[in-house]
Model the fold of this input.
Amino acid sequence: MKLLARAGFGLLAGAIVLFALLPFAYAIVTSLRPASELFEPAWLPASLTLANYAAVFSEQPFGRNVLNSILVSGTVVAFAMLAGTTAAYALARIRFRGRGILLAAILGASMFPQVAILSGMFELIRALGLYNHPAGLALSYVVFTLPFTVWMLVAYLRELPKELEESALIDGLSAWQTLTRIFLPLMGPAVAATALLAFIAAWNEFLFALTFTLTHEQRTVPVAIALMTGASQHELPWANIMAASVIVTLPLIALVLVLQRRIVSGVTAGAVKG
Done:
């Protein structure tokens, strides 16, 4: 009976992995196909070519788009982690009037869909002179990244022993010193997981990036891929799109594989009270 249960679990796990990896495997195979073999009914291409990858960078400023995504996502993560860590410490460890209302407001802000605040964000970014500039994207991304960051870190900080603060208070440490010297070293898993998830959210964001940019040179990779065209305006170069998708997905996969243990421990932190 146990052997049958293990076999069933193995088959189920294999089916889930296959279902998750099949689209990415199809993208890799398609990106290596010559244009003449693109729509042939074959699992593997008869010949392999890197021409599609070269075309991605030669036919549009895709390198600049990748750099824009890196700069915007990195800026968002840096600001979200700095502001989110300090805000989470105050909300989780310091008692003050209105803390519950502030937490509810942060939760409420995270529930709003992006399209609900799109027009307001557009007016704000245009008034600040940041339209068609990566700084405008970074500012808009913080709106939906910061509430998520705060909630993740608040859940983790609430589970740390109160005796840590009492010991720090006895030693004469201020609130900032307690956060930086005592709590931050213990928050490694939560900080790593939250930073990575915030980076992925900013890296994959499409709606704001499409609305707040105008020229090809200022766009990020999701918009650049969506707006790729072939020889005619209405022709879609599927092989180039697949090659670009593989290029922008591989760094995320590498980061997740490197930090997978911290992601699991950070995401599940605060889920169970001992």
Notes: The chain is about 70% helix and 0% strand. Residues 159 and 273 are 7 Å apart (CA to CA). Residues 270-274 have pLDDT under 50 and may be disordered. The longest helix spans residues 62-93.
